Amino acid sequence: MAQNEWATKDYYADLGVSSTASADEIKKAYRKIARENHPDIKPGDKAAEERFKKAAEANDVLSDPESRKEYDDLKAMLRGGGFSGFGRGGGSGFPGGFRQPTDFSTSDIFGDRSDGGFSEDGAFGDIFGGLFNRGGGTRGTARPTRGADVETEITLDFTEAAKGTTIPLQLTGDAPCNVCHGSGSKSGNPSTCGDCSGTGFTSESRGAFGFSAPCSTCGGTGQIITDPCTHCSGRGTVNRTRSITVRIPAGVIDGQKVRLAGQGEAGPNGKPAGDLFVTVHVREDQVFTRSGDDLEVTVPVSYTELALGETITVPTLDAPVRVKVPAGTPNGRTLRVRGRGVPKRGAEAGDLLVTVQVKVPKNLDAAATSALRTYAQAEKGSGFDPRADWAGAKRK
Protein backbone atom coordinates (compact mmCIF):
# COMPACT_ATOMS: atom_id res chain seq x y z
CA MET A 1 0.00 0.00 0.00
CA ALA A 2 1.44 3.33 -1.07
CA GLN A 3 1.64 5.88 1.73
CA ASN A 4 -0.20 8.49 -0.34
CA GLU A 5 -3.34 6.32 0.01
CA TRP A 6 -3.20 6.10 3.80
CA ALA A 7 -5.12 9.36 4.26
CA THR A 8 -8.32 7.68 3.00
CA LYS A 9 -7.92 4.47 5.04
CA ASP A 10 -9.04 3.57 8.55
CA TYR A 11 -7.04 0.44 9.26
CA TYR A 12 -8.09 0.17 12.91
CA ALA A 13 -11.76 0.16 11.89
CA ASP A 14 -11.03 -2.45 9.22
CA LEU A 15 -9.71 -4.76 11.95
CA GLY A 16 -12.31 -3.73 14.53
CA VAL A 17 -9.73 -2.60 17.11
CA SER A 18 -8.89 0.70 18.78
CA SER A 19 -5.92 2.84 17.81
CA THR A 20 -4.27 1.85 21.10
CA ALA A 21 -4.54 -1.89 20.40
CA SER A 22 -1.48 -3.98 21.18
CA ALA A 23 0.38 -5.99 18.57
CA ASP A 24 -1.22 -9.19 19.91
CA GLU A 25 -4.71 -7.68 19.70
CA ILE A 26 -4.08 -6.65 16.10
CA LYS A 27 -2.82 -10.13 15.24
CA LYS A 28 -5.82 -11.83 16.88
CA ALA A 29 -8.30 -9.50 15.15
CA TYR A 30 -6.74 -10.16 11.74
CA ARG A 31 -6.68 -13.93 12.23
CA LYS A 32 -10.34 -13.96 13.28
CA ILE A 33 -11.40 -11.98 10.20
CA ALA A 34 -9.21 -14.12 7.95
CA ARG A 35 -10.70 -17.35 9.33
CA GLU A 36 -14.26 -16.12 8.83
CA ASN A 37 -13.87 -14.42 5.44
CA HIS A 38 -11.10 -16.23 3.56
CA PRO A 39 -12.08 -16.98 -0.09
CA ASP A 40 -11.45 -20.67 0.60
CA ILE A 41 -14.06 -20.58 3.37
CA LYS A 42 -16.58 -18.45 1.46
CA PRO A 43 -15.91 -19.01 -2.23
CA GLY A 44 -17.77 -16.56 -4.46
CA ASP A 45 -18.78 -14.25 -1.59
CA LYS A 46 -17.58 -10.85 -2.82
CA ALA A 47 -18.42 -9.05 0.43
CA ALA A 48 -16.37 -11.55 2.46
CA GLU A 49 -13.53 -11.32 -0.04
CA GLU A 50 -13.47 -7.51 0.24
CA ARG A 51 -13.54 -7.75 4.05
CA PHE A 52 -10.61 -10.20 3.92
CA LYS A 53 -8.60 -7.93 1.60
CA LYS A 54 -9.15 -4.87 3.79
CA ALA A 55 -8.10 -6.78 6.90
CA ALA A 56 -4.99 -8.13 5.18
CA GLU A 57 -4.00 -4.65 4.02
CA ALA A 58 -4.57 -3.21 7.49
CA ASN A 59 -2.55 -6.01 9.10
CA ASP A 60 0.37 -5.45 6.72
CA VAL A 61 0.64 -1.82 7.87
CA LEU A 62 -0.25 -2.12 11.56
CA SER A 63 1.76 -5.27 12.28
CA ASP A 64 5.00 -3.49 11.37
CA PRO A 65 5.95 -1.02 14.15
CA GLU A 66 7.68 1.39 11.76
CA SER A 67 4.87 1.60 9.19
CA ARG A 68 2.28 1.78 11.99
CA LYS A 69 4.05 4.80 13.48
CA GLU A 70 4.14 6.54 10.11
CA TYR A 71 0.44 5.80 9.61
CA ASP A 72 -0.46 7.05 13.11
CA ASP A 73 1.57 10.24 12.59
CA LEU A 74 -0.21 11.01 9.35
CA LYS A 75 -3.70 10.37 10.78
CA ALA A 76 -2.91 12.51 13.83
CA MET A 77 -1.93 15.44 11.60
CA LEU A 78 -5.07 15.02 9.51
CA ARG A 79 -7.33 14.89 12.59
CA GLY A 80 -5.63 17.93 14.08
CA GLY A 81 -6.09 20.02 10.96
CA GLY A 82 -2.33 20.08 10.57
CA PHE A 83 -2.59 21.26 6.96
CA SER A 84 -5.32 23.88 7.10
CA GLY A 85 -4.04 25.36 10.36
CA PHE A 86 -0.66 26.50 9.06
CA GLY A 87 -1.91 29.99 8.36
CA ARG A 88 -2.46 31.89 5.13
CA GLY A 89 -0.70 34.37 3.00
CA GLY A 90 2.81 33.51 4.12
CA GLY A 91 2.21 33.88 7.87
CA SER A 92 3.49 30.40 8.67
CA GLY A 93 7.19 31.00 8.38
CA PHE A 94 7.56 28.96 5.14
CA PRO A 95 8.94 30.55 2.00
CA GLY A 96 6.12 31.76 -0.23
CA GLY A 97 3.43 31.03 2.34
CA PHE A 98 0.69 28.41 2.00
CA ARG A 99 -2.34 28.19 -0.21
CA GLN A 100 -5.85 28.22 1.12
CA PRO A 101 -6.78 25.00 2.95
CA THR A 102 -9.39 24.18 0.31
CA ASP A 103 -6.63 23.97 -2.30
CA PHE A 104 -4.93 21.00 -0.66
CA SER A 105 -5.28 17.45 -1.88
CA THR A 106 -3.78 14.12 -0.89
CA SER A 107 -1.27 14.51 -3.69
CA ASP A 108 -0.14 17.83 -2.21
CA ILE A 109 0.47 16.20 1.14
CA PHE A 110 2.80 13.60 -0.29
CA GLY A 111 4.61 15.83 -2.71
CA ASP A 112 3.13 14.35 -5.90
CA ARG A 113 2.20 17.71 -7.38
CA SER A 114 4.52 19.91 -9.37
CA ASP A 115 2.33 22.92 -10.02
CA GLY A 116 4.81 25.44 -8.60
CA GLY A 117 2.74 26.29 -5.55
CA PHE A 118 5.89 26.37 -3.39
CA SER A 119 9.51 27.24 -3.95
CA GLU A 120 11.88 24.25 -4.17
CA ASP A 121 13.53 24.82 -0.80
CA GLY A 122 10.18 25.01 0.96
CA ALA A 123 8.24 22.40 -1.01
CA PHE A 124 5.52 20.58 0.82
CA GLY A 125 6.72 17.34 -0.77
CA ASP A 126 10.16 17.95 0.76
CA ILE A 127 8.71 18.26 4.25
CA PHE A 128 6.38 15.29 4.18
CA GLY A 129 8.60 13.24 1.90
CA GLY A 130 11.23 13.42 4.63
CA LEU A 131 8.71 12.57 7.31
CA PHE A 132 7.63 9.41 5.52
CA ASN A 133 11.05 8.29 4.29
CA ARG A 134 10.38 9.38 0.71
CA GLY A 135 12.81 12.23 0.33
CA GLY A 136 12.11 15.12 -2.01
CA GLY A 137 13.38 18.60 -2.73
CA THR A 138 17.03 18.92 -1.80
CA ARG A 139 17.02 16.04 0.72
CA GLY A 140 18.53 12.63 0.07
CA THR A 141 16.19 9.67 -0.30
CA ALA A 142 16.24 7.23 2.60
CA ARG A 143 17.55 3.77 1.92
CA PRO A 144 15.11 0.85 1.78
CA THR A 145 14.08 -0.48 5.18
CA ARG A 146 13.64 -4.04 3.87
CA GLY A 147 14.43 -6.21 0.89
CA ALA A 148 12.24 -6.49 -2.19
CA ASP A 149 9.32 -8.90 -2.34
CA VAL A 150 9.67 -11.77 -4.81
CA GLU A 151 6.93 -13.53 -6.78
CA THR A 152 7.15 -16.95 -8.39
CA GLU A 153 4.81 -19.69 -9.65
CA ILE A 154 4.65 -23.45 -9.16
CA THR A 155 2.46 -26.24 -10.53
CA LEU A 156 1.33 -29.09 -8.26
CA ASP A 157 -0.47 -32.36 -8.80
CA PHE A 158 -4.02 -32.49 -7.45
CA THR A 159 -3.04 -34.73 -4.53
CA GLU A 160 -0.05 -32.55 -3.59
CA ALA A 161 -2.27 -29.46 -3.43
CA ALA A 162 -4.95 -31.24 -1.42
CA LYS A 163 -2.62 -32.87 1.12
CA GLY A 164 0.11 -30.23 1.20
CA THR A 165 3.70 -30.77 0.18
CA THR A 166 7.26 -29.51 0.53
CA ILE A 167 9.07 -28.44 -2.64
CA PRO A 168 12.53 -27.03 -3.38
CA LEU A 169 12.78 -23.68 -5.16
CA GLN A 170 15.69 -21.86 -6.73
CA LEU A 171 15.57 -18.06 -6.57
CA THR A 172 17.94 -15.55 -8.12
CA GLY A 173 18.24 -12.12 -6.54
CA ASP A 174 19.81 -10.17 -3.68
CA ALA A 175 21.04 -12.42 -0.89
CA PRO A 176 23.21 -11.64 2.18
CA CYS A 177 26.90 -11.31 1.38
CA ASN A 178 28.74 -14.38 2.67
CA VAL A 179 31.91 -12.39 3.37
CA CYS A 180 30.53 -9.61 5.59
CA HIS A 181 27.38 -11.56 6.59
CA GLY A 182 25.12 -8.82 5.26
CA SER A 183 26.56 -5.92 7.24
CA GLY A 184 28.36 -4.27 4.31
CA SER A 185 31.36 -3.69 6.60
CA LYS A 186 34.63 -5.57 6.15
CA SER A 187 35.03 -5.79 9.91
CA GLY A 188 31.35 -6.49 10.43
CA ASN A 189 31.01 -3.40 12.65
CA PRO A 190 29.47 -0.35 10.94
CA SER A 191 30.03 2.97 12.73
CA THR A 192 27.27 5.07 14.27
CA CYS A 193 26.43 8.11 12.17
CA GLY A 194 27.64 11.24 13.94
CA ASP A 195 25.17 13.61 12.25
CA CYS A 196 22.06 11.86 13.56
CA SER A 197 23.59 10.00 16.52
CA GLY A 198 22.40 6.72 15.07
CA THR A 199 18.71 7.64 14.95
CA GLY A 200 18.56 7.88 11.16
CA PHE A 201 16.73 11.23 11.36
CA THR A 202 17.70 14.85 11.67
CA SER A 203 15.43 17.63 12.94
CA GLU A 204 15.08 21.24 11.91
CA SER A 205 12.78 24.14 12.65
CA ARG A 206 10.85 26.10 10.06
CA GLY A 207 9.06 28.99 11.61
CA ALA A 208 6.94 27.76 14.46
CA PHE A 209 7.17 24.13 13.42
CA GLY A 210 9.76 21.38 13.78
CA PHE A 211 10.23 18.63 11.23
CA SER A 212 12.19 15.41 11.04
CA ALA A 213 13.73 14.00 7.87
CA PRO A 214 15.98 11.05 7.02
CA CYS A 215 19.61 11.83 7.68
CA SER A 216 21.27 12.70 4.37
CA THR A 217 24.64 11.44 5.59
CA CYS A 218 23.64 7.86 6.39
CA GLY A 219 20.49 7.70 4.24
CA GLY A 220 18.30 7.09 7.28
CA THR A 221 20.13 3.95 8.42
CA GLY A 222 21.86 5.48 11.45
CA GLN A 223 25.11 3.78 10.44
CA ILE A 224 28.14 4.65 8.34
CA ILE A 225 30.23 2.06 6.53
CA THR A 226 33.83 3.24 6.95
CA ASP A 227 35.41 -0.03 5.75
CA PRO A 228 33.17 -1.30 2.92
CA CYS A 229 33.30 -5.00 2.14
CA THR A 230 35.16 -5.49 -1.15
CA HIS A 231 32.96 -8.45 -2.12
CA CYS A 232 29.65 -6.54 -2.03
CA SER A 233 31.01 -2.96 -2.25
CA GLY A 234 29.44 -2.15 1.10
CA ARG A 235 25.86 -3.02 0.10
CA GLY A 236 25.66 -6.11 2.30
CA THR A 237 23.99 -8.05 -0.51
CA VAL A 238 25.11 -9.85 -3.65
CA ASN A 239 23.09 -11.19 -6.58
CA ARG A 240 23.15 -14.97 -6.54
CA THR A 241 21.03 -18.07 -6.94
CA ARG A 242 19.92 -19.72 -3.71
CA SER A 243 17.88 -22.82 -2.93
CA ILE A 244 15.07 -22.84 -0.37
CA THR A 245 12.50 -25.39 0.73
CA VAL A 246 8.90 -24.19 0.61
CA ARG A 247 6.10 -25.78 2.61
CA ILE A 248 2.78 -25.59 0.77
CA PRO A 249 -0.12 -26.02 3.22
CA ALA A 250 -2.84 -28.61 2.66
CA GLY A 251 -5.92 -27.52 0.76
CA VAL A 252 -4.52 -24.83 -1.55
CA ILE A 253 -6.63 -24.13 -4.62
CA ASP A 254 -5.66 -23.26 -8.17
CA GLY A 255 -4.51 -19.64 -8.42
CA GLN A 256 -4.02 -19.16 -4.67
CA LYS A 257 -1.01 -17.17 -3.45
CA VAL A 258 1.05 -18.44 -0.53
CA ARG A 259 3.05 -15.80 1.37
CA LEU A 260 6.33 -16.77 3.01
CA ALA A 261 7.52 -13.96 5.25
CA GLY A 262 11.21 -13.11 5.06
CA GLN A 263 11.95 -15.37 2.09
CA GLY A 264 12.23 -12.56 -0.48
CA GLU A 265 15.36 -10.61 -1.37
CA ALA A 266 17.74 -9.66 1.43
CA GLY A 267 17.63 -6.08 2.71
CA PRO A 268 20.69 -3.84 2.39
CA ASN A 269 23.23 -3.74 5.23
CA GLY A 270 21.46 -6.29 7.40
CA LYS A 271 17.92 -4.94 6.93
CA PRO A 272 15.08 -7.51 6.99
CA ALA A 273 14.38 -9.52 3.86
CA GLY A 274 11.24 -9.03 1.79
CA ASP A 275 8.53 -11.67 1.41
CA LEU A 276 8.10 -14.45 -1.13
CA PHE A 277 4.72 -14.85 -2.82
CA VAL A 278 4.15 -18.21 -4.50
CA THR A 279 1.23 -18.53 -6.92
CA VAL A 280 0.05 -22.14 -6.99
CA HIS A 281 -1.36 -23.79 -10.11
CA VAL A 282 -3.05 -27.19 -9.72
CA ARG A 283 -3.26 -29.89 -12.40
CA GLU A 284 -6.60 -31.59 -12.96
CA ASP A 285 -6.93 -35.15 -11.67
CA GLN A 286 -8.31 -38.09 -13.65
CA VAL A 287 -10.27 -39.42 -10.68
CA PHE A 288 -11.02 -36.64 -8.20
CA THR A 289 -12.56 -33.17 -8.30
CA ARG A 290 -13.10 -30.71 -5.45
CA SER A 291 -16.07 -28.85 -4.07
CA GLY A 292 -14.62 -26.64 -1.36
CA ASP A 293 -13.10 -29.08 1.13
CA ASP A 294 -15.14 -32.03 -0.12
CA LEU A 295 -13.56 -34.56 -2.45
CA GLU A 296 -15.76 -35.87 -5.28
CA VAL A 297 -15.38 -39.18 -7.13
CA THR A 298 -17.65 -41.02 -9.56
CA VAL A 299 -17.50 -44.84 -9.26
CA PRO A 300 -18.80 -47.19 -11.99
CA VAL A 301 -21.08 -49.97 -10.67
CA SER A 302 -23.23 -52.72 -12.14
CA TYR A 303 -27.02 -52.81 -12.12
CA THR A 304 -27.04 -55.81 -9.80
CA GLU A 305 -24.79 -54.02 -7.28
CA LEU A 306 -27.36 -51.22 -7.02
CA ALA A 307 -30.39 -53.52 -7.06
CA LEU A 308 -29.10 -56.10 -4.58
CA GLY A 309 -26.70 -53.92 -2.60
CA GLU A 310 -22.96 -54.33 -2.33
CA THR A 311 -19.86 -53.11 -0.53
CA ILE A 312 -17.46 -51.50 -2.99
CA THR A 313 -13.86 -50.25 -2.73
CA VAL A 314 -13.40 -46.50 -3.34
CA PRO A 315 -10.09 -44.60 -3.69
CA THR A 316 -9.21 -41.66 -1.45
CA LEU A 317 -6.19 -39.33 -1.17
CA ASP A 318 -4.65 -42.01 1.08
CA ALA A 319 -5.67 -45.68 1.35
CA PRO A 320 -8.89 -46.93 -0.32
CA VAL A 321 -12.04 -47.24 1.81
CA ARG A 322 -14.97 -49.67 1.72
CA VAL A 323 -18.35 -48.09 1.05
CA LYS A 324 -21.68 -49.90 1.52
CA VAL A 325 -24.17 -49.41 -1.31
CA PRO A 326 -27.68 -50.11 0.05
CA ALA A 327 -30.00 -52.38 -1.94
CA GLY A 328 -32.23 -50.41 -4.29
CA THR A 329 -29.82 -47.48 -4.64
CA PRO A 330 -30.77 -45.43 -7.73
CA ASN A 331 -28.22 -44.67 -10.43
CA GLY A 332 -26.48 -41.32 -9.85
CA ARG A 333 -26.99 -41.27 -6.10
CA THR A 334 -24.19 -39.68 -4.05
CA LEU A 335 -23.01 -41.40 -0.87
CA ARG A 336 -21.10 -39.41 1.77
CA VAL A 337 -18.05 -40.69 3.65
CA ARG A 338 -17.26 -38.34 6.55
CA GLY A 339 -13.77 -36.97 7.06
CA ARG A 340 -12.12 -38.50 3.98
CA GLY A 341 -12.00 -35.32 1.89
CA VAL A 342 -9.46 -32.49 1.73
CA PRO A 343 -7.50 -31.93 4.98
CA LYS A 344 -7.96 -28.57 6.74
CA ARG A 345 -5.41 -27.02 9.08
CA GLY A 346 -6.76 -26.91 12.62
CA ALA A 347 -10.11 -28.40 11.65
CA GLU A 348 -11.74 -31.63 10.48
CA ALA A 349 -11.17 -32.68 6.90
CA GLY A 350 -13.91 -32.40 4.32
CA ASP A 351 -16.00 -35.37 3.18
CA LEU A 352 -15.67 -37.87 0.34
CA LEU A 353 -18.67 -37.68 -1.99
CA VAL A 354 -19.11 -40.96 -3.92
CA THR A 355 -21.47 -40.86 -6.90
CA VAL A 356 -22.46 -44.31 -8.26
CA GLN A 357 -22.96 -44.64 -12.00
CA VAL A 358 -24.21 -47.78 -13.72
CA LYS A 359 -21.94 -49.21 -16.38
CA VAL A 360 -23.86 -51.30 -18.95
CA PRO A 361 -22.00 -54.30 -20.39
CA LYS A 362 -21.53 -54.19 -24.17
CA ASN A 363 -21.04 -57.92 -24.73
CA LEU A 364 -22.69 -60.80 -22.83
CA ASP A 365 -22.04 -64.50 -23.35
CA ALA A 366 -24.89 -66.91 -23.97
CA ALA A 367 -25.30 -67.88 -20.32
CA ALA A 368 -25.44 -64.28 -19.11
CA THR A 369 -27.87 -63.32 -21.90
CA SER A 370 -30.18 -66.24 -21.09
CA ALA A 371 -30.11 -65.41 -17.37
CA LEU A 372 -30.84 -61.75 -18.07
CA ARG A 373 -33.84 -62.63 -20.30
CA THR A 374 -35.18 -64.88 -17.58
CA TYR A 375 -34.79 -62.04 -15.07
CA ALA A 376 -36.53 -59.59 -17.45
CA GLN A 377 -39.57 -61.85 -17.68
CA ALA A 378 -39.65 -62.27 -13.90
CA GLU A 379 -39.35 -58.50 -13.49
CA LYS A 380 -42.38 -57.90 -15.71
CA GLY A 381 -44.27 -60.61 -13.95
CA SER A 382 -43.73 -58.89 -10.62
CA GLY A 383 -45.43 -55.77 -11.96
CA PHE A 384 -42.34 -53.56 -12.06
CA ASP A 385 -42.59 -50.77 -14.66
CA PRO A 386 -39.53 -48.43 -14.79
CA ARG A 387 -41.62 -45.72 -16.48
CA ALA A 388 -44.68 -45.92 -14.22
CA ASP A 389 -43.98 -42.58 -12.52
CA TRP A 390 -42.29 -40.96 -15.49
CA ALA A 391 -43.87 -37.67 -16.57
CA GLY A 392 -43.31 -38.55 -20.23
CA ALA A 393 -45.59 -41.58 -19.92
CA LYS A 394 -48.61 -39.24 -19.72
CA ARG A 395 -47.83 -37.75 -23.13
CA LYS A 396 -47.82 -40.99 -25.07
From TrEMBL:
It comes from the Bacteria. SUPFAM superfamilies: Chaperone J-domain, DnaJ/Hsp40 cysteine-rich domain, HSP40/DnaJ peptide-binding domain. Residues 35-57 have a biased composition (Basic and acidic residues). GO terms for biological process: DNA replication; protein refolding; response to heat. A zinc finger (CR-type) spans 164-241. Pfam families: DnaJ, DnaJ_C, DnaJ_CXXCXGXG. InterPro entries: DnaJ (IPR012724), DnaJ_C (IPR002939), DnaJ_domain (IPR001623), DnaJ_domain_CS (IPR018253), HSP40/DnaJ_pept-bd (IPR008971), HSP_DnaJ_Cys-rich_dom (IPR001305), HSP_DnaJ_Cys-rich_dom_sf (IPR036410), J_dom_sf (IPR036869). Its cofactor is Zn(2+). Binds 2 Zn(2+) ions per monomer. Residues 164-241 form the CR-type domain. Its main location: cytoplasm. GO terms for cellular component: cytoplasm. Residues 35-67 are annotated as: Disordered. SMART domains: DnaJ (SM00271). GO terms for molecular function: ATP binding; heat shock protein binding; unfolded protein binding; zinc ion binding. CXXCXGXG motif repeats lie at residues 177-184, 193-200, 215-222, 229-236. Gene3D superfamilies: DnaJ domain, Heat shock protein DnaJ, cysteine-rich domain, Urease metallochaperone UreE, N-terminal domain. Zn(2+) 2 binds at residues 193, 196, 215, 218. Residues 10-75 form the J domain. Keywords: Chaperone, Cytoplasm, DNA replication, Metal-binding, Repeat, Stress response, Zinc, Zinc-finger. Participates actively in the response to hyperosmotic and heat shock by preventing the aggregation of stress-denatured proteins and by disaggregating proteins, also in an autonomous, DnaK-independent fashion. Unfolded proteins bind initially to DnaJ; upon interaction with the DnaJ-bound protein, DnaK hydrolyzes its bound ATP, resulting in the formation of a stable complex. GrpE releases ADP from DnaK; ATP binding to DnaK triggers the release of the substrate protein, thus completing the reaction cycle. Homodimer. Belongs to the DnaJ family. The J domain is necessary and sufficient to stimulate DnaK ATPase activity. Zinc center 1 plays an important role in the autonomous, DnaK-independent chaperone activity of DnaJ. Zinc center 2 is essential for interaction with DnaK and for DnaJ activity. This is Chaperone protein DnaJ.
